[in-house]
Structures are given as C-alpha cells and as structure tokens.
Amino acid sequence: MKHVIDQPLETDRMVLNYGPHHPATHGTLRIIMELEGETVTKVTPEIGFLHSGFEKLGEDLNFNQYITITDRMNYLSPLCNNVAYALAAEKLMNLEVSKRTEYIRVLMCELSRIADHLLNVGMLAVDLGAMTAFLYGFRVREDIYDLFEKATGTRLTTSYTLVGGLMRDIPEGFEKAVLKVLDEVDKAANDIETLLNKNRIWHDRTKNIGIISKEDAISYGISGPMARASGIDWDIRVNEPYSSYQDFDFDVAIALNGDVFDRYLVRMEEIRQSIKICRQSLDKMPTGEVIIDPNLGLSLPPKDEVYNSIEGLIYHFEITMPHRGMTPPVGEAYVPTESPNGELGYYIVSDGKCTPYRVRTRPPSLINYSIFSKLIEGHMLSDAPAILGSLNIIAGELDR
Amino acid sequence: MTSAEIKAVLEHQFPAAMVENEDLTEKQVELKGNQWLEIATFIKNDPDLSFDQLECITGYDTGEDGPLQTRYNLHSMEHRHKIEVVISHNRENPNVASIEQLWRIGDWFERETYDMFGIVYEGHRDLRRILCPDDWEGWPLRKDYEGQETYHGIVVQKMKEEEGWE
Predict the structure, then answer these.
(1) Any idea which of A8-12, A96-100, A247-251, B143-147 has the lowest mean pLDDT?
(2) Which candidate from B55, B61, B107 shows the least CB-CB separation from A362?
(3) pLDDT in tens, A74-89
(4) Which of A334, A369, A371, A373 to mutate to test the interface with B (most CBs of B within 10 A)?
(5) Does the beta-carbon distance from B77 to A347 stay under 8 Å?
(6) Which end of chain A is less packed: N or C, by CB atoms within 10 Å?
(7) CB contact under 8 A, A56 and B141
(8) Do B104 and A51 count as a contact with CB atoms less than 8 A apart?
(9) Closest-CA residue in chain A for B134?
(10) Whether A370 and B131 lie within 8 Å, measured CB to CB
(11) Shortest Cα–Cα distance, B70 to chain A (Å)
(12) How far is CA B156 from CA A283, A391, B146, B148, B164, in A?
C-alpha cells in the first residue's frame, strides 16, 4: 500500500469535452477543458448551439410579433424580456403607457426575478449535491408560474406585453393570490438560507471559488447580480429608472468578495427586495386602462369587440395585415433594463416601415459567460458546475 | 459630462478623426477608423473621460450601397456618462483595429460582429465565428445576404417575397 501512495500522480495533459448535453450545463454549452490531474489549465468555451437568428428575424417581424420571440430568448424570465422590448418600441414610437400598465409590469418583472433567482440558487445547490434546497425553491417557483398562467394564459411563453400596454389586465383575485405566494416565497427563502448559509460543505464548495474582481467585472462588462456581488453599486432600477421604478422603495443588494458564495447571497437578498417591491406595487396599484386607445391604430382592439362587432373585426384586420398596422417614425431607441441576469436592452432602428430595420439585443448572458474561461482556470474540475451555476447562463439568450 | 462636452474633448484631441454625419443622434459621434486604437486608449485612460466599460458593440448595415458600421457603446462607471462611437467601413474590405485588449468583453463582441457582418478586427487574437458554424458562408446580418442553398446536405429554407415560406 505504501508503495502505491509514494508513486507520483500521473499528471498527463488530458482534454475533456464538457457538454453540449451535459446536465450540469443547463442548456447547450460546450466547454473544452484541458486538465492536468484534476486542475483545469485551459478552457475554450464554444457557443452557438442554440443560435436561431433572432436578430435577423426581427427585421421580418412587426413590433408586436417580435414580442413572442423575446420569450424564447430567455425562458426563465420571459416577462422581463417582454417588458424590455416593449419599452424600447414605445420609446421609438413616443408612446406613453398608463401608470397601471407600468405597475403591473413591475409586479410581473419582480415575480420573474424571484422565480429566476430561486431556480438559479436551487440549480447551483443541486449541482453541488444539495437536493433539498433545490426542492424548496422549485416548489414555490411552480406557484409563481401558476400566477403567470392566471395572468397571461401560459407558464413559459408569456408574450404578456404589447407595444403600448399589456395583452390583458390582471384577473380578479390576482392580488390575493400573489400575496399568498409571496408569503410562501418568504418562507422558502428562509428555508433555503437556513440550510445553506451556515453549512460547512456549502462554504467549502462556494467560498473563494470563481472570484471576479471589481476591475475584471467592469472590463468584462458584467452587470446585474454578478457585478453587485463584486462590489459594483450599479442597479439600473435605481440609477436609470424605467417603468416607474422610482416610485418603489427598495435596497440594492451588494457583496464585496465576488465569489460564488457572494453571488448566492446577492441573489437571496434580491429575492427579499423583490418581495418588497411586489407588495408595494399591489398596495399602490393605480386604476385605469392597460391597453392604449384602439383609435390610435396601434394596438389590436379588445377581443370582445373583434368577435362581436364588424368595426372591431375591420380594425383587427387593418392592423394584422402585411405592410399595415403600427409604423413608427424614422429613428432609433434603446432602453436599458435590469433583468435577473443583468443589463438587458433592445436597440431598435426604424426606417419608417412596419418592421424594424435592425434589432439588436444586449444579451447579459453572453457578456456574463465570456469571463467563464478566466474564472475556471486554476480551479478543480469539480468547481466547474459551481462557477457555471453561479453565472446564471440562459442559452437561448446567449446564442439568440 | 454631457455628450456635447465629450465630443468637444475628442475634437480637441483628434481633430483629424472627426466625421460629420447628419443621420446620427446627438449621443453618437462618428470617427474615422484609422486612429481608432489610439482614440480608444485615450478615452479609456483619460481621467476626465475614463470610459472603463464597453457596454455593447453593434454591427450595422446602412444599406446595400452604403457602408457597414461598428457602433461602440461606452459607459464610465466612475463619471456615469455615456457615448456611442460609430465607425464606418467600406463594404468590400471592412476592417478596423481591435480593442479586444483594452476592454476584455470586446473579444466576444468583435467575434460576434465579425460573424454577422464580416467586419475584420485587426489585432484580435482569436477572430473566428462564434454563433454560426465555422464553415457557414456569407454574413447573415448584412442587407445583401443571400443564404446558402444547402448546408452539409440539409436544405436551407428561405423566405420568398410575397409567397411566404417555401
């Protein structure tokens, strides 16, 4: 036995192909790793497996049609993407939306943020072997998705916003249901934190792993919870408020070390702040319309009128027929928004036709993923799922 | 600083690099490509400008006869101001200096813009396609892009004018 132990470990260079269908990549990512023993020495990430030409498609679809594409881009928080696109299109057309629309959008975005963070923390935990924390998070996430289903009709491909408003108002009794779910979320967050915050194994697996320094975070353009975990005080909801975020009172979660553990802490704190924002938004919910005046010729008339009156049907056709409907002035618009992954925004250029000239997404997942190869180098192979999980990569948005 | 003040500083430092373009908004400034690396180094390191963050690079095609453009969205975390730098390239031989080593995110952004528009970033250490497969033909987001007929024996579907999908 002693003889075996005394022999030096074989440390030949080995190339390991991680993905594209590895369960811990949570999406189709391929990472080519060079290992020496168990230490990662070089990493080449390869992306593009989910490339669907969404930016090119934007040049063929009109403004309301493209909202369905934004769902597919980020399948963990589609509502945030819907809102981001609608905001940019509204800026392009100089449309003002009602206060009620803005408040409902805030409510939906924050619910999405909670769902996204719960899943992200849960997935990080399950990759590191903590199944229970994942189940706590996933169960309440289902409740949130039930809320989305009540309001939008679907769980995933929500397409809830329209340019100038919302697809429909929130249903009756929605406030009560949201408040009930928020209590559950609060409980689940407590449960997850009780399990993980002082857990020795969790600390060993996440502390001092994948540290992003403040300088790197800025140079790599990292935004959102990841930047805040590295000590950057930047939250677009506070610094460049959109959709009435200035009316809400909440704190920005910031941590200083920039490791996996700090990113986890920031996300947990953001869940609590989002609960606060949701409650405020329900408390102060203004009354009013959520659909812009149909007479402007920009939005589809209410379904009730389409089915029951000839005028409604004619208006509906006027808008949905090719080369008709919503036509913005020549110009361009970009509105940055704080999505659960980071700064998300759509840059739309219009040449005065009913389809955009160019649609560009600022994809937070692509930007946050670009630092991965730097983070993992020098770490053990078993740290790869921890770091990858903490980046919160959505492959649909990464590849577009 | 406001966009006008930033433009004034640029004009003072690099008078030869400024380009007048009436199509742009007041938050954008067009520069000539030949001095770009020097200008980029200056605006990143100058304490008054201090553009430490590159928020986005957008490729842009001005039309089938017009030039291609690269648009850099710069942001200063320190001073919290922004500017968008536009650089035009001719269609036949689009190239400009790479800023990949100044802002690290430039690496993937430039690869993406190269992939979609075929703009060559000179000095980039690993310039290859990022989203499309390596053997894809053409530059998909250019306005005169014609998709290839087949790809490894798979028929590439095309949209026909008026008729919709084949």
Answers:
(1) A8-12
(2) B55
(3) 888 889 999 999 999 8
(4) A334
(5) no
(6) N
(7) yes
(8) no
(9) A48
(10) no
(11) 13
(12) 53, 34, 11, 7, 15
Instruction: Please indicate if any CB of chain B lies within 8 Å of the CB of A362.
Output: yes
Rounded CA-CA distance A115/A144 in Å is 7
The answer to the question of residue B107 being in a domain is: yes
Q: What is the pLDDT of residues A195-252, one digit of tens each?
A: 888 888 888 888 888 888 888 888 888 888 999 999 888 888 888 888 888 888 888 9
CA distance A97 to chain B (A): 24
Domain boundaries in chain A?
44-399
Hey, of B56, B70, B158, which one would you mutate to test binding to chain A, going by the most A CBs within 10 A of its CB?
B56
Task: Out of B77, B107, B131, name the one closest to residue A218 (CB).
Answer: B77
Query: Chain B contact for A42, CB < 8 A?
Result: no
Asked if A297 is an interface residue toward chain B (Cβ–Cβ < 8 A), one would say: no
- For residue A136, what are its two tokens? 């706590």
Q: Are the C-beta atoms of residues A393 and A371 closer than 8 Å to each other?
A: no
Q: What confidence tens digit (pLDDT) does each residue in A252-289 have?
A: 989 888 889 999 999 999 999 999 999 998 998 888 88
A51 near B CB under 8 A: yes
Q: What are the E-state strand segments in chain A?
A: 13-18, 30-36, 39-46, 161-162, 165-166, 331-334, 337-338, 343-350, 358-362
The residues pairing with B53 across neighbouring beta strands, listed in sequence order, are B75
Tokens describing residue A270: 């953001």
**Residue B54 belongs to domain spanning:** 3-132
Q: Is residue B158 assigned to a domain?
A: no
CB A70 within 8 A of CB A78: yes
Mean pLDDT of A127-140: 87
Whether B55 sits inside 8 A of A56 (CB atoms) is: no
Nearest CA in chain B to A60: B159
Which pTM value belongs to this model? 0.88
The shortest CB-CB distance from B132 to any of A48, A218, A239 is to A48
- Are A362 and B56 in contact (CB < 8 Å)? yes
Q: Can you give the CATH number for the domain in which B33 is found? A: 3.30.460.80
The architecture of the domain spanning A44-399 is: Orthogonal Bundle (1.10)
Number of domains in chain B: 1
For chain B, 166 residues long, give each residue's pLDDT as a single digit of tens.
887 888 888 888 888 877 877 777 778 888 888 888 888 888 888 888 888 888 889 988 888 888 888 888 888 888 888 888 889 888 888 888 888 888 888 889 999 999 988 899 888 888 888 888 888 888 888 888 887 888 888 887 776 555 554 4
Give, in order, the Cα–Cα distances in Å from A33 to each of A16, A378, B131: 5, 11, 20
Q: Do A399 and B60 touch (CB under 8 A)?
A: no
Instruction: Report the residue from B105, B130, B140 with minimal CB separation from A367.
Output: B105
Q: Does a structural domain hold residue B46?
A: yes
Q: Is residue B67 in a domain? A: yes
